[in-house]
Input
Amino acid sequence: MSTILVTGGAGYIGSHACKALAEAGHTPVTFDNLETGWRDAVKFGPFAQGDLLDRARLDEVFAEFQPDAVMHFAALSQVGESMSHPGKYWRNNVAGSLNLIEAAVAAGCKNFVFSSTCATYGDQDNVVLDENSAQYPINAYGASKRAIEDILRDFEASDGLRHVIFRYFNVAGADPDAEVGEFHQPETHLIPLMLDAIDGKRDALTIFGTDYDTPDGTCIRDYVHVCDLVDAHVLGLDWLAHGKESRVFNLGTGSGFSVREVIDHSREVTNREVPFTEGPRRAGDCTKLVSGSTRAEAELGWKPTRSTLKQMITDAWRWHQSGHYDG
Ligand code: UFG
Output
């Protein structure tokens, strides 16, 4: 039973994490500036509005709630935008996280769970991506997350900040109860855009690049269900609570699907046509990102139960049709 400061708790992954934390008996305190998050997604614990770049506000929130741990989701996360506006990513993600880490350490809160990404690995042809793989990000988003990983290691050495770093592959799906789900404004992610195109809320989906060196020419990603992903975070907290060493875990399934395969699955799940066109590559996209690690299963005892592509699209489609979503 502990109090967890959840930065980005009003966002897609953060709101699912708050639900999982509350179900596990913890109190999730959402810290969010509501720039990309939604006030009505904060349903499972207290809300403190604030910006990571505002250190005084962070100090106030640490003093008021005295959290036992931080779960840090708040970040800008669009690969394409990070290529055109890198400064936003270095300022918000890196400078913001540094503020948060310094505020946590100053408040004596030294358990930290961090949301990192497989985008830190970059484009490494034919390399099995596990936690020991080299990190060569090819976009500013991945570079900003790698920098935060480095900051955490430095603060462990200087101040004993214990941490678990999760490197996510592609997060998809929604809460099966449709209490929370994915809603970005603007939306840039493949599955929600595809579902919008299917039910006529948007124009046809554009496939970004059909000339990649993959069997069908489109990019390959490893999709993981948001509920499975946040379950790993609760296990990560337990890991720290048991005094275990700081650790990095990939969160993916080890199975990769191309954009065309995701389209095929969406057609099957929704029983509707997927309107799409073929366009040029998007800057910053890697050819293939698939996890090659089972460390989270072996060490944390993580057991993904909903991470088949069919289940993820089914849950995302239910959320889409729930009436909460207004794409
Ligand atoms: N794609 C399209 N058309 C679209 C949108 C996406 O073809 O309209 C393609 C992309 O080119 C990519 C795949 O679908 O090949 C997935 O794209 P997303 O935008 O859904 O996801 P990304 O892989 O770009 O990025 C996501 C998260 C990042 C994370 C990354 C790791 O947004 O935070 O996964 O791969 F780091």
The chain has a mean pLDDT of 96. The chain has two domains: 3-171+223-251, 190-221+254-322.
